[in-house]
Amino acid sequence: MEYLESRRGRVEERLEEVLDGVEPDELGEEVRHVVLSGGKRVRPTVTVLVCEALGGDVDTAVEFAVGIELVHSASLVVDDIIDRSELRRGTPSAWAEYGHGPAIIASDGLLGEAFALFSANERAMQAVSESMVELGEGEATELVAQPASEDEYMELARRKTGALFRAAAELGAIAAEADAYTVENFGKYAERVGVAFQMRDDVLDTTADADELGKPTGHDAAMERPSLVQVADLTPEEANERAREQSQVALDALAAVDADDSKAMDYLRDLAEFVVVRER
User: Fold this and answer.
1) Which of 35, 94, 243, 251 would disulfide-bridge 103, Cβ 3.0–4.6 Å?
2) Per its UniProt record, what Gene3D superfamilies does this chain match (predicted)?
3) Which residue has the higher pLDDT, 88 or 171?
């Protein structure tokens, strides 16, 4: 566990350094509220672990890891506005704390800081840009046409959640200067982890305690937001089984990668198994 925490710690330190440089002070306060109020840091940790698994430059990976966390945080600000969610990670969401205008500006500011970190690497820019296109298309699709089948739900989950997970892993491989085949397999691994993560989120929204989860439960139903449990008419147990299937696809993709066995690979495998049993 110390191994994993040390990687997260490096990301956290660099996050704070980047956010400390944001001006003016009002914007700096808002972006710090968004990013430093908590979070699992799963995506940036994946970036660092993938780079380490391939023997790459971890300093570069940390820069990319911070960037993908800023992109993720920016997307959450918009999600909370769309969903009218007043709570995020146990604290007031950005719009609830500062208002809609400042929250939108904070989201833009986070994206600007993120792309400054990617700008020197063309492959990194492409990976993140593609993921943001997918994310935007997913958000837009959900607003105008909610999924009516399990297949449509899966495509939405791939775009809304899987795409940023994919980018996180691809960035780690790019930081290690990996070939296209390796980048693709790590991307597939992380995308399926992301989809499984979203499926488990849907189950937790149905079954978890709000205080333990750190955000309101029952929100999907209240907002008439498509949940796997509702769209596919599944029990929570059946939905968990679907998530486990995605986890196995992720593990298979990881097994196809030509990388030495290491602590980093062990943790990547553990993540694919953990996302389907997590309680928050």
Assistant:
1) 94
2) Farnesyl Diphosphate Synthase (1.10.600.10)
3) 171
Q: What would the 3-class secondary structure string for the chain be? A: CHHHHHHHHHHHHHHHHHHHCCCCHHHHHHHHHHHCCCCCCHHHHHHHHHHHHCCCCHHHHHHHHHHHHHHHHHHHHHHHHHHCCCEECCEECHHHHHCHHHHHHHHHHHHHHHHHHHCCCHHHHHHHHHHHHHHHHHHHHHHHCCCCCHHHHHHHHHHHHHHHHHHHHHHHHHHCCCCHHHHHHHHHHHHHHHHHHHHHHHHHHHHCCHHHHCCCCCHHHHCCCCCHHHHCCCCHHHHHHHHHHHHHHHHHHHHCCCCCCCHHHHHHHHHHHHCCCCCC
Contact call for residues 171 and 222 (beta carbons, < 8 A) = no
170-202 confidence digits (pLDDT tens)? 999 999 999 999 999 999 999 999 999 999 988
Sole residue written with tokens 């995506």: 43
**What pLDDT is attached to residue 213?**
45
Go through the domains of the chain in sequence order and give each one's CATH number.
Answer: 2-274 (1.10.600.10)
Amino acid at 68: I
Residue in the structure block whose two tokens are 């989201």: 107
Predicted TM-score of the model (pTM): 0.91
Structure tokens given for 101: 């205008």
